[in-house]
């Protein structure tokens, strides 16, 4: 018995237990032994995380695919897990220690600190997993993985060692994004560009051999900089090779102010003649662009900042080399001064010597750490790198050849741009939480990379015996006695970038590097669903690692979803206070309503503008289905054994079977093409408009009438169509559909495992051969009955039934529309004249007269050769239906009203177009504000079009 009121919270809790107890989502179920696998790996959320709207969208779309394919008979593995999230997790635990006034990590030591992190992970690490379950994610939770599980860690070490052996991992001194607060390198993804109001300093650099005078421009060259404190590390000045102002100076030297070092003027196209003075200082150790300029011209790299962002001058051999006499005193004065304090003092010193030409206010983007919020420094340091350029080549080729495709396809351009211009990937992080780099250093700094410490010791002893640093006897003793080799080699303290381990996710989670049955069966995966912001950081790296180690693409389709923004189109952020918490929405409206909202708005390539009202609207949609199911139950609607909808005799019932088949094809094709919004839109229209508003309403006279064969058939068809709805809607709204299936369908088995309504066709011999070739060596021959997705789209159709019921619906709909446009009160009944009606219309109209009169508020339906004078004419499926409105409405008053409304629409259009034509407004206003004006214009144009149509109809009634 269906409860009177729809209560999502009760249903969700109950159904979650049902699914879990029945192992509904477990991959490799015995009943799917012969089924074709379908695999998706979840983008592993940070173990520190909680469900945000991006997670909700991403996992809803994955779940739709998984539930859809599971119902199509596939052996679905949706691989869940979490990421250890190096910096984020370490920060959480360090903050806890500080808040509890406990010793910090350095006081605790590495081993004790890591014990504390693991303890925190055990206590809090499952938060987001439980929240994903609340969303309804149908992962195989028995296979949950963590990037620092023993098996995954084994894969990480093997990959590092093999890539190092192949020369694809190496150590190098390069610039990195350095967080001076966290004291570690960070990835580009962890850098946020923040607009800052600062200054642009124009500095005079004296030309060598000329007596410097601030009044004589021939004695100096002017450079513009936003960072005067880094000038101490300048090793060049760059000018454009075609800039006539500096042609004679190229190759000459300038004297670096305050420091006295001679630095060369070089010609490089990086310098823009149109910006500033056209000359730029080159500081290769403190700017990414300058680093490249320095490489092109062989300029020295002089780092003048330490890890904490203070000037490092006094014991800095690179800085002190080649300095003129007396410059060391300056180094002593400014040593260990914070970079921002140093900036102020250096500018004061430059001004006192006449080296500052002018200072201008300057707004520019400054990189900040997304977690520390400190200004990020380009910092020259020794780090471990991956030769990403070499690894990228097969990954680029796989997308170019179509082995892997992006949806939407335009993201391939972004992928190619990044991959074809890829830089070495910095994989080392100065943290403790993470995969410690499997590298050990000998007493002379020699590096030994190995999978275990024992292996590293073995390599080291062999090397140092050969180099005669130790004797053969010492080597033997050290190999046998740990105490004798204590401190002989030291492990690298750094850990690997989190993206390194997550790059292996599609195969490390399946048990690789062991040759497990899971690797054989579920790799490569089918689809990856992710956001555009990690195409480079995660997607591209999975492609590189998958191609290199598995010799196969990791996934055949990459679906890129857009952002979820607020209802005005603004990006959600805590600072703006516009963040919408998905868990609050689930509490208030239910997980099904949130899921359907996200799916219905997930148009390819378009951001989602999420309004709470939309979620509330889809909660009402769920209630509509609930009430329709209750109505069916109360009217004893049930599907009898052996019922075949194709053999229905009643036109109305054959029509709903026809519409159901059409919707099934529409939903199926849309999900296959990753058009989630189209699929959701199709099922929404079918449930709300076709089934509830029309079919049930048109069936009521039969259901509420006397017993008859027609009533029996209609009861069966109402229940059958409801069950088809539950199947089609299940991937989108799993909780309510599973509940209604259990209560009303009265069948054995879960809806989650029920067959999808569209049956597969028999495969061709070519398709069978292709699938057999794709099967792993341990897989049985794939059963033809489970070859998916190959469909027979020639399902049930009845054009005659559609023509008849479609005519009734279109007629009633158009009459209702005219009544609304003309402000005809519901109590006022109007006549209808069917003018020049065809034989079919003359036959069908009497069958539906009572229904049409009731639903369209008509007093009478009659036939005539032509439409009467003063009647509004409607074209319904090629035939004229006329509404005589003379005397029913005040034509003059109605025309005045419509003219007034058209005037309002014109004013709204003009106002919006005026703003959009203003280049300043479009350039300076927030993106969401501009978009809002566009939407206002489009809404006003649509409103005006409808009003003009109503006005034209009104003329007919004059």
TrEMBL record:
Its Enzyme Commission number?
Answer: 6.1.1.9
**Where in this protein would one find the motif 'KMSKS' region, according to its record?**
571-575
Q: Which residues form a coiled coil?
A: 895-957
- Valyl-tRNA synthetase tRNA-binding arm domain location: 890-955
Outline the extent of the Methionyl/Valyl/Leucyl/Isoleucyl-tRNA synthetase anticodon-binding domain: 653-828
Where is the Aminoacyl-tRNA synthetase class Ia domain positioned along the sequence? 18-610
Report the domain of life of the source organism. Bacteria
Where, per UniProt, does this protein localize?
Cytoplasm
CDD domains, per database record: Anticodon_Ia_Val, ValRS_core
> Which GO-annotated molecular functions does the record name?
aminoacyl-tRNA deacylase activity; ATP binding; valine-tRNA ligase activity
Any one GO CC term of this protein is: cytosol
Q: Where does ATP bind?
A: 574
Q: Name one GO biological process term.
A: valyl-tRNA aminoacylation
Instruction: Identify the keywords attached in UniProt to this record, alphabetized.
Output: Aminoacyl-tRNA synthetase, ATP-binding, Coiled coil, Cytoplasm, Ligase, Nucleotide-binding, Protein biosynthesis
Q: Which reaction does it catalyse?
A: tRNA(Val) + L-valine + ATP = L-valyl-tRNA(Val) + AMP + diphosphate
- Annotated motif 'HIGH' region, positions: 45-55
Q: What does this protein do?
A: Catalyzes the attachment of valine to tRNA(Val). As ValRS can inadvertently accommodate and process structurally similar amino acids such as threonine, to avoid such errors, it has a 'posttransfer' editing activity that hydrolyzes mischarged Thr-tRNA(Val) in a tRNA-dependent manner.
Q: How does it assemble?
A: Monomer.
* HAMAP family in the record: Val_tRNA_synth_type1
Q: What is known of its domains?
A: The C-terminal coiled-coil domain is crucial for aminoacylation activity.
| Record PANTHER family | VALINE--TRNA LIGASE, CHLOROPLASTIC_MITOCHONDRIAL 2 (PTHR11946:SF93), VALYL-TRNA SYNTHETASES (PTHR11946)
In the record, the note on similarity to other proteins reads:
Belongs to the class-I aminoacyl-tRNA synthetase family. ValS type 1 subfamily.
The name under which this protein is listed is Valine--tRNA ligase
**Which source organism does the UniProt entry give?**
Bradyrhizobium huanghuaihaiense
User: Which gene is transcribed and translated to give this protein?
Assistant: valS
């Amino acid at each position: 018995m269906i409860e009177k009121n729809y209560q999502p919270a009760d249903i969700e809790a109950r159904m979650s237990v049902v699914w879990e107890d029945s192992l509904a989502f477990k991959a490799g179920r015995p009943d799917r032994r012969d089924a074709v696998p379908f695999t998706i790996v979840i983008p592993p959320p940070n173990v520190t995380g909680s469900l945000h709207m991006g997670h909700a969208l991403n996992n809803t779309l994955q779940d739709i695919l998984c539930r859809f394919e599971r119902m199509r008979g596939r052996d679905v593995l949706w691989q869940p897990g979490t990421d250890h999230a190096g910096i984020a997790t370490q920060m959480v635990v360090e903050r806890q220690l500080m808040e509890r006034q406990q010793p910090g990590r350095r006081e605790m030591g590495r081993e004790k600190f890591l014990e504390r992190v693991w303890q925190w992970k055990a206590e809090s690490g499952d938060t987001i997993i439980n929240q994903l379950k609340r969303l309804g994610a149908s992962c195989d939770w028995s296979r949950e993985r963590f990037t620092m599980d023993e098996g995954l860690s084994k894969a990480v070490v093997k990959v590092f060692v093999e890539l190092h052996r192949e020369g694809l991992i190496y150590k190098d001194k390069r610039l990195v994004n350095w967080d001076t607060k966290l004291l570690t390198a960070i990835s580009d993804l962890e850098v946020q560009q923040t607009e800052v109001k600062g200054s642009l300093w124009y500095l005079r650099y004296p030309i060598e051999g000329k007596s410097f005078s601030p009044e004589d421009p021939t004695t100096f060259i002017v450079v513009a900089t936003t960072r005067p404190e880094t000038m101490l590390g300048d090793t060049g000045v760059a000018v454009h090779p075609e800039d006539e102002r500096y042609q004679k100076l190229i190759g000459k030297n300038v004297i670096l102010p305050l420091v006295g070092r001679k630095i060369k003027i070089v010609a490089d196209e990086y310098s823009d003649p149109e910006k500033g003075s056209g000359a730029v200082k080159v500081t290769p150790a403190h700017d990414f662009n300058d680093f490249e300029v320095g490489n092109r011209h062989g300029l020295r790299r002089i780092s003048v900042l330490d890890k904490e962002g203070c000037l490092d001058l006094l014991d800095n051999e690179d800085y002190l080399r080649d300095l003129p006499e007396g410059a060391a005193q300056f180094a002593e004065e400014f040593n260990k001064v914070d970079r921002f304090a140093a900036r102020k003092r250096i500018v004061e010193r430059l001004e006192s010597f006449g080296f500052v030409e002018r200072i201008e206010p300057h707004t520019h983007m400054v990189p900040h750490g997304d977690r520390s919020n400190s200004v990020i420094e380009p910092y020259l340091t020794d780090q471990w790198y991956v030769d990403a350029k070499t690894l990228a080549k097969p990954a680029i080729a796989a997308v170019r050849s179509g082995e892997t495709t992006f949806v939407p396809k335009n993201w391939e351009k972004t992928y190619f741009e990044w991959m074809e211009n890829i830089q070495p990937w910095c994989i080392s992080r100065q943290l403790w939480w993470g995969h410690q780099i499997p590298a050990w250093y000998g007493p002379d700094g020699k590096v030994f990379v190995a999978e275990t410490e024992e292996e590293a010791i073995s390599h080291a002893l062999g090397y140092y015996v050969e180099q005669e640093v130790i004797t053969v006897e010492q080597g033997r003793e050290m190999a046998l006695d740990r105490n004798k080799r204590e401190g002989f080699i030291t492990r690298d303290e750094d850990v690997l970038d989190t993206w390194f381990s997550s790059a292996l996710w599609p195969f490390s989670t399946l048990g690789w590097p062991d040759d497990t049955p899971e690797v054989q069966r579920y790799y490569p995966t089918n689809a990856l669903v992710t956001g555009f912001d990690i195409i480079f950081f995660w997607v591209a790296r999975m492609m590189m690692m998958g191609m290199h180690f598995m010799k196969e693409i990791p996934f055949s389709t990459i679906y890129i979803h857009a952002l979820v923004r607020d209802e005005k189109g603004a990006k959600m952020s805590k600072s703006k206070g516009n963040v919408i918490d998905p868990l609050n929405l689930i509490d208030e409206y239910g997980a099904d309503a949130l899921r359907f909202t996200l799916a219905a708005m997930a148009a390819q390539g378009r951001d989602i503008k999420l309004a709470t009202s939309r979620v509330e609207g889809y909660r009402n949609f769920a209630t509509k289905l609930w009430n329709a199911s209750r109505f069916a139950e109360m009217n004893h609607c049930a599907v009898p054994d052996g019922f075949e909808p194709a053999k229905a005799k009643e036109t109305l019932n054959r029509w709903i079977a026809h519409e159901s088949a059409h919707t099934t094809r529409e939903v199926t094709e849309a999900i296959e093409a990753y058009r989630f919004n189209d699929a959701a839109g199709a099922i929404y229209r079918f449930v709300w408009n076709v089934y509830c508003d029309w079919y049930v309403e048109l069936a009521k006279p039969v259901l509420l009438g006397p017993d008859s064969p027609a009533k029996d058939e209609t009861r069966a068809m109402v229940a059958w169509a409801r069950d088809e709805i539950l199947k089609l809607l299940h991937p989108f709204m799993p909780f309510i559909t599973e509940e209604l299936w259990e209560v009303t369908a009265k069948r054995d088995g879960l809806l989650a495992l029920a067959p999808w309504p569209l049956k597969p066709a028999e495969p061709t011999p070519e398709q069978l051969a292709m699938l057999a070739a794709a099967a792993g060596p341990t897989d049985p021959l794939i059963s033809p009955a489970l070859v998916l997705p190959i469909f027979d789209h020639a399902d049930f159709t009845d054009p005659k039934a559609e023509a008849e019921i479609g005519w009734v619906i279109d007629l009633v709909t158009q009459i209702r529309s005219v009544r609304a446009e003309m402000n005809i009160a519901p109590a006022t009944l109007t006549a209808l004249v069917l003018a020049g009606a065809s034989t079919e219309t003359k036959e069908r109209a009497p069958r539906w007269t009572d229904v049409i009169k009731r639903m369209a508020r008509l007093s009478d339906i009659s036939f005539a050769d032509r439409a009467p004078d003063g009647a509004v004419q409607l074209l319904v499926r090629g035939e004229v239906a006329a509404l005589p409105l003379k005397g029913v409405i005040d034509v003059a008053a109605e025309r005045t009203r419509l003219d007034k409304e058209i005037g309002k629409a014109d004013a709204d259009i003009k106002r919006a177009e005026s703003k959009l034509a203003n280049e300043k407004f479009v350039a300076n206003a927030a993106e969401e504000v501009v978009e809002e004006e566009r939407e206002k214009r489009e809404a006003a144009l649509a409103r005006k079009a409808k009003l003009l149509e109503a006005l034209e109809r009104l003329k007919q009634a004059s």
